[in-house]
């Protein structure tokens, strides 16, 4: 009986090993297949693409204008980093690693806004995997310039910054924490004096605090975060040379005698990751494949487990990845889905149950759940 169990285990192990070795990863050129090759309905995939094209986001083509319209009423708001005009609706559908659908200009580099947060999270994952940070450590152990010295701020951990429950108070690169998405109806004095929860006790989406995570990681690596991302993630997965990651004109700091820009975690004030759709898709495929690219481990399984664990204060949010759970759940779709999302309808959607990666740019954000559902329903 024991011999039988041992042989069964070996057959299973080698079967999984062969299966893993047979997984397709794109090289410089990305192979395409008809949806029907994988048992999907060609017509339904075409209908999903038409749906995306017909439901393009109406955000202004001039993204500086779009940002000002969305956030310009915030106290002392200003554009601090670069912006650019956006392209038209475009996207790609990946099944089992192959392109089974695409539309628009998938090579165009565009702003991606808060999808940047998922790239920033990945840089934090590199620090975690290398043992450079402990998630429950207070930031004061790593950053000693005063930003975490107050009785309130010294309680903040990496875990808090990553799931947006830090409640940090202060000013970073000229913007106060309370000026980002402030409570409506309060005066500036009231905003300054408002009582906020202790770190870890409430979720609050806040780009100033996300930028603080970026600043803190820069202090750990002592190298530009775009270089860390490039060397450890984007180059190994075969991304193009066209993507960029920007901070602000006034977000440069001195480390080891060098002036280094602290990059932003989104485009709320300009900046963030500027990237094309195919590079997004490679990044998404990496996470679909549990952090492996061919035979190389890029991101640990443990980190992917952590980023997809619902936060205590918001079940829809992990470590700067959105989860299809809680208040933001897309009706009728698996809770295993997780995704990166940015202003203007930018998405990288990971659907593990169907081996899918879906990247869409400039989609009406209210239609994303319907769009994903149409693709999943194409499975015959």
Structure description:
The protein is α+β, with helices and mostly antiparallel strands and about 375 residues long. It folds into two domains: about 30-110 and about 275-375, no CATH class; about 120-265, 3-Layer(aba) Sandwich (Beta-lactamase). Helix content is about 30%, strand content about 15%. It has eleven helices and 14 strands. The protein has helices at about 1-20, 40-55, 65-70, 115-130, 160, 190-195, 205-220, 225-235, 275-290, 300-305, 370-375; strands at about 90-95, 100-105, 110, 170, 175, 245-255, 260-265, 270-275, 290-295, 295, 320-325, 340, 345-350, 355-360. It has a six-stranded antiparallel β-sheet with strand order 2-1-14-13-12-11, sandwiched between helices. Helix 2 (about 40-55) runs antiparallel to helix 11 (about 370-375). The longest helix is centred in the N-terminal third of the chain and has 20 residues, at about 1-20. The chain is globular, with a radius of gyration of 21 Å. Mean pLDDT is about 95; it is low at about 5-20.
Write a compact overview of the structure shown.
The protein is 32% helix and 17% strand. By secondary structure, the chain is an alpha+beta fold.
How would you summarize the topology of this molecule?
Layout: H1 2-21, H2 42-54, H3 63-71, E1 90-95, E2 98-103, E3 110-111, H4 116-129, H5 158-162, E4 171-172, E5 175-176, H6 188-193, H7 207-221, H8 225-234, E6 244-255, E7 258-263, E8 272-275, H9 277-288, E9 292-293, E10 296-297, H10 301-307, E11 322-323, E12 338-342, E13 346-351, E14 356-361, H11 368-376
Antiparallel strand pairs: 1-2, 1-14, 3-8, 4-5, 6-7, 6-8, 9-10, 11-12, 12-13, 13-14
Helix pairs in contact: 2-11, 4-7, 4-8
């Amino acid at each position: 009986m024991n011999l039988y169990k041992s042989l069964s285990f070996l057959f299973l192990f080698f079967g999984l090993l062969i299966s893993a070795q047979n997984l397709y990863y794109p090289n410089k050129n990305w192979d395409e297949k008809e949806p029907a090759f994988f048992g999907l309905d060609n017509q339904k995939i075409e209908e999903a693409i038409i749906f995306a094209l017909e439901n393009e986001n109406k955000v202004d083509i001039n993204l500086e204008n779009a940002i000002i319209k969305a956030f310009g009423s915030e106290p002392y708001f200003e554009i601090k980093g670069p912006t650019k005009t956006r392209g038209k609706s475009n996207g790609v559908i990946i099944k089992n690693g192959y392109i089974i659908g695409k539309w628009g200009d998938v090579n165009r580099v565009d702003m991606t806004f808060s999808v940047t947060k998922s790239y920033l999270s990945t840089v934090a994952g590199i620090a975690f995997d290398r043992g450079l940070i402990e998630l429950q450590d207070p930031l004061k152990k790593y950053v000693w310039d005063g930003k975490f010295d107050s009785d309130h701020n010294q309680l903040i951990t990496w875990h808090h910054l990553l799931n947006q429950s830090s409640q940090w108070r202060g000013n970073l690169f000229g913007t106060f924490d309370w000026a980002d998405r402030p409570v409506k109806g309060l005066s500036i004095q009231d905003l300054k004096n408002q009582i906020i929860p202790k770190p870890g006790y409430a979720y609050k989406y806040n780009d100033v605090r996300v930028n603080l995570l970026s600043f803190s990681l820069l202090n750990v690596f002592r190298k530009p975060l775009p270089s860390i991302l490039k060397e450890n993630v984007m180059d190994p997965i075969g991304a193009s040379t066209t993507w960029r990651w920007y901070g602000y004109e006034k977000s440069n700091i001195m480390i080891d005698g060098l002036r280094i820009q602290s990059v932003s975690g989104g485009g709320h004030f300009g900046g963030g990751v500027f990237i094309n759709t195919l590079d997004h898709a490679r990044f998404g495929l990496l996470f679909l494949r549990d952090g492996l690219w061919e035979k190389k481990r890029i991101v640990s399984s443990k980190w992917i487990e952590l980023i997809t664990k619902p936060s205590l204060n918001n079940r829809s949010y992990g470590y700067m990845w959105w989860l299809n759970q809680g208040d933001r759940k897309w009706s009728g779709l698996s809770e295993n889905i997780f995704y990166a999302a940015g202003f203007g309808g930018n998405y990288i959607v990971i659907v593990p149950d169907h081996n899918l990666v879906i990247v869409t740019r400039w989609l009406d954000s209210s239609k994303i759940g319907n769009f994903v559902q149409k693709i999943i329903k194409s499975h015959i």
